[in-house]
Amino acid sequence: EFFYDWNTGKMIYYPAEGVDMATATFEYPTGDHMLSFYGVKNVTLKNMTFTGNDDQSWENSVYSCSQATSLAGDYGSDTKAALYFSNTTNVTISECLFHDMPTMGVKFTGVTYSPTVESSRFFKIGCTGIEIGQHSGTWDENTNANYDIKVYNNYLDDIAWYARGAIGIYI
Fold first, then answer.
1. What is the mean predicted confidence (pLDDT) over 65-90?
2. What is the 3-state secondary structure (H, E, C) of 82-114?
3. What's the CA gap between 93 and 122, in Å, rounded?
4. DSSP assignment letter at 15
5. Closest to 135 measured CA to CA, from 143, 124, 125
6. Could you tell me if 81 and 107 are in contact, meaning their C-beta atoms sit under 8 angstroms apart?
7. How sure is the predictor about 116, in pLDDT bands with cuts at 50, 70 and 90?
8. This prediction's pTM
9. Closest CA to 149 of 133, 165, 129
Protein backbone atom coordinates (compact mmCIF):
# COMPACT_ATOMS: atom_id res chain seq x y z
CA GLU A 1 0.00 0.00 0.00
CA PHE A 2 1.25 3.52 -0.76
CA PHE A 3 0.10 7.11 -0.52
CA TYR A 4 1.42 10.62 -1.03
CA ASP A 5 1.64 12.72 2.15
CA TRP A 6 0.86 16.28 1.02
CA ASN A 7 2.03 17.73 4.34
CA THR A 8 5.53 16.27 4.17
CA GLY A 9 5.84 15.96 0.39
CA LYS A 10 6.78 12.27 0.63
CA MET A 11 5.42 9.17 -1.04
CA ILE A 12 4.97 6.52 1.65
CA TYR A 13 4.96 2.79 0.91
CA TYR A 14 3.94 0.14 3.42
CA PRO A 15 5.25 -3.22 2.20
CA ALA A 16 3.24 -6.37 2.52
CA GLU A 17 4.38 -8.77 5.20
CA GLY A 18 7.52 -10.64 4.11
CA VAL A 19 8.60 -8.10 1.44
CA ASP A 20 12.32 -7.32 1.67
CA MET A 21 12.61 -3.63 0.75
CA ALA A 22 16.33 -4.05 -0.02
CA THR A 23 15.48 -6.30 -2.98
CA ALA A 24 11.91 -5.28 -3.82
CA THR A 25 10.99 -4.27 -7.37
CA PHE A 26 8.20 -1.77 -7.99
CA GLU A 27 6.24 -2.03 -11.21
CA TYR A 28 3.65 0.40 -12.47
CA PRO A 29 1.42 -0.05 -15.51
CA THR A 30 2.60 2.39 -18.13
CA GLY A 31 0.69 5.15 -19.81
CA ASP A 32 1.55 8.70 -20.72
CA HIS A 33 3.92 9.08 -17.76
CA MET A 34 5.14 6.74 -15.04
CA LEU A 35 4.69 9.46 -12.44
CA SER A 36 3.05 12.87 -12.88
CA PHE A 37 3.30 15.78 -10.46
CA TYR A 38 1.16 18.92 -10.74
CA GLY A 39 1.70 21.99 -8.56
CA VAL A 40 3.87 20.20 -6.00
CA LYS A 41 6.56 21.78 -3.82
CA ASN A 42 9.65 20.36 -2.12
CA VAL A 43 9.66 16.88 -3.71
CA THR A 44 12.81 14.72 -3.89
CA LEU A 45 13.06 11.48 -5.87
CA LYS A 46 16.32 9.74 -5.00
CA ASN A 47 17.93 6.43 -5.92
CA MET A 48 14.99 5.19 -8.02
CA THR A 49 14.94 3.29 -11.33
CA PHE A 50 12.52 4.06 -14.17
CA THR A 51 12.29 1.76 -17.17
CA GLY A 52 9.91 0.49 -19.83
CA ASN A 53 7.59 3.47 -20.17
CA ASP A 54 5.77 2.80 -23.43
CA ASP A 55 2.57 4.45 -24.51
CA GLN A 56 1.39 3.19 -27.89
CA SER A 57 0.12 6.63 -28.89
CA TRP A 58 3.71 7.89 -28.92
CA GLU A 59 4.48 6.20 -32.20
CA ASN A 60 1.38 7.63 -33.84
CA SER A 61 1.54 11.18 -32.52
CA VAL A 62 5.18 12.26 -32.31
CA TYR A 63 6.13 15.26 -34.37
CA SER A 64 9.82 14.78 -35.10
CA CYS A 65 10.98 18.37 -35.24
CA SER A 66 14.59 19.42 -34.76
CA GLN A 67 14.43 18.72 -31.03
CA ALA A 68 11.81 15.98 -31.40
CA THR A 69 10.07 17.09 -28.24
CA SER A 70 6.76 18.30 -29.66
CA LEU A 71 3.52 16.66 -30.49
CA ALA A 72 2.01 18.08 -33.62
CA GLY A 73 0.41 21.44 -32.89
CA ASP A 74 0.98 21.25 -29.15
CA TYR A 75 4.52 22.54 -28.55
CA GLY A 76 5.36 19.46 -26.56
CA SER A 77 3.21 20.12 -23.50
CA ASP A 78 1.92 16.54 -23.50
CA THR A 79 4.99 14.70 -24.75
CA LYS A 80 5.35 11.39 -22.95
CA ALA A 81 7.97 11.07 -20.20
CA ALA A 82 8.85 8.73 -17.37
CA LEU A 83 8.59 11.65 -14.92
CA TYR A 84 6.33 14.58 -15.79
CA PHE A 85 6.21 17.78 -13.72
CA SER A 86 3.96 20.79 -14.27
CA ASN A 87 4.04 24.07 -12.33
CA THR A 88 6.38 22.84 -9.59
CA THR A 89 8.72 24.36 -7.02
CA ASN A 90 11.91 22.85 -5.61
CA VAL A 91 11.81 19.40 -7.21
CA THR A 92 15.01 17.33 -7.02
CA ILE A 93 15.80 14.16 -8.97
CA SER A 94 19.00 12.67 -7.60
CA GLU A 95 20.94 9.47 -8.24
CA CYS A 96 18.16 7.96 -10.35
CA LEU A 97 18.43 5.58 -13.30
CA PHE A 98 16.33 5.95 -16.48
CA HIS A 99 16.67 3.33 -19.21
CA ASP A 100 15.04 1.41 -22.06
CA MET A 101 12.09 3.64 -22.94
CA PRO A 102 10.95 5.26 -26.20
CA THR A 103 9.80 8.43 -24.42
CA MET A 104 11.57 11.25 -22.56
CA GLY A 105 13.23 10.60 -19.24
CA VAL A 106 12.26 13.77 -17.32
CA LYS A 107 10.02 16.66 -18.41
CA PHE A 108 9.26 19.89 -16.56
CA THR A 109 6.63 22.17 -18.07
CA GLY A 110 4.65 25.22 -17.04
CA VAL A 111 6.15 27.62 -14.48
CA THR A 112 9.04 25.83 -12.80
CA TYR A 113 11.04 27.10 -9.84
CA SER A 114 14.28 25.47 -8.73
CA PRO A 115 14.26 22.13 -10.59
CA THR A 116 17.36 20.01 -9.98
CA VAL A 117 18.42 16.90 -11.91
CA GLU A 118 21.71 15.62 -10.52
CA SER A 119 23.93 12.57 -10.49
CA SER A 120 21.49 10.48 -12.53
CA ARG A 121 22.02 8.15 -15.49
CA PHE A 122 19.98 8.12 -18.68
CA PHE A 123 20.53 5.45 -21.36
CA LYS A 124 18.51 3.95 -24.18
CA ILE A 125 16.05 6.86 -24.06
CA GLY A 126 14.03 7.22 -27.26
CA CYS A 127 13.62 10.99 -27.10
CA THR A 128 15.13 13.82 -25.02
CA GLY A 129 16.71 12.73 -21.75
CA ILE A 130 15.93 15.86 -19.72
CA GLU A 131 13.65 18.70 -20.79
CA ILE A 132 12.99 21.78 -18.68
CA GLY A 133 10.73 24.37 -20.22
CA GLN A 134 8.02 24.65 -22.78
CA HIS A 135 9.13 25.92 -26.15
CA SER A 136 6.00 27.82 -27.08
CA GLY A 137 7.99 30.53 -28.84
CA THR A 138 6.74 33.25 -26.51
CA TRP A 139 8.00 34.11 -23.02
CA ASP A 140 5.15 34.28 -20.55
CA GLU A 141 5.87 34.42 -16.82
CA ASN A 142 2.45 32.96 -16.08
CA THR A 143 2.66 29.88 -18.30
CA ASN A 144 6.21 28.89 -19.28
CA ALA A 145 8.84 30.60 -17.12
CA ASN A 146 11.69 28.63 -15.53
CA TYR A 147 13.91 29.85 -12.71
CA ASP A 148 17.03 28.60 -10.91
CA ILE A 149 17.57 25.51 -13.08
CA LYS A 150 20.26 23.05 -11.96
CA VAL A 151 21.25 20.11 -14.18
CA TYR A 152 24.65 18.65 -13.37
CA ASN A 153 26.74 15.52 -13.02
CA ASN A 154 24.38 13.38 -15.12
CA TYR A 155 25.41 10.68 -17.58
CA LEU A 156 23.48 10.37 -20.84
CA ASP A 157 24.12 7.64 -23.42
CA ASP A 158 22.15 6.30 -26.40
CA ILE A 159 19.67 9.18 -26.36
CA ALA A 160 17.23 9.77 -29.24
CA TRP A 161 17.31 6.24 -30.61
CA TYR A 162 13.63 6.57 -31.53
CA ALA A 163 13.20 10.28 -32.28
CA ARG A 164 16.51 10.92 -34.06
CA GLY A 165 16.26 14.71 -33.90
CA ALA A 166 16.02 14.77 -30.10
CA ILE A 167 18.80 16.08 -27.88
CA GLY A 168 20.18 14.92 -24.54
CA ILE A 169 19.21 17.98 -22.49
CA TYR A 170 16.76 20.70 -23.55
CA ILE A 171 16.38 23.84 -21.46
1. 64
2. EEEEECCEEEEEECCEEEEECCEEEEEECCEEC
3. 12
4. P
5. 143
6. yes
7. very high
8. 0.73
9. 133
Q: Which residues pair with 51 in a beta bridge?
A: 99
Rounded CA separation 132/27 (Å):
26
Rounded to whole angstroms, the Cα distance separating 81 from 55 reads 10
Query: Cβ(99)–Cβ(122) under 8 Å?
Result: yes
CB 131 within 8 A of CB 108: yes
d(CA 20, CA 134): 40
Mean local confidence (pLDDT), 63-69:
40
β-bridge partners, 69: none
- CA–CA distance, 163 with 143 (Å, rounded to integer): 26
Q: Which residues contact 18 (CB under 8 A, 6 or more apart)?
A: none
What are 63-68's contacts with CB under 8 Å, separation 24+?
Answer: 64/163, 64/164, 64/165, 65/165, 66/165, 67/128, 67/135, 67/165, 67/166, 67/167, 67/170, 68/127, 68/128, 68/160, 68/163, 68/164, 68/165, 68/166, 68/167
The amino acid at 67: Q
> Measuring CA to CA, how many Å separate 45 from each of 12, 39, 97, 103?
12, 16, 11, 19
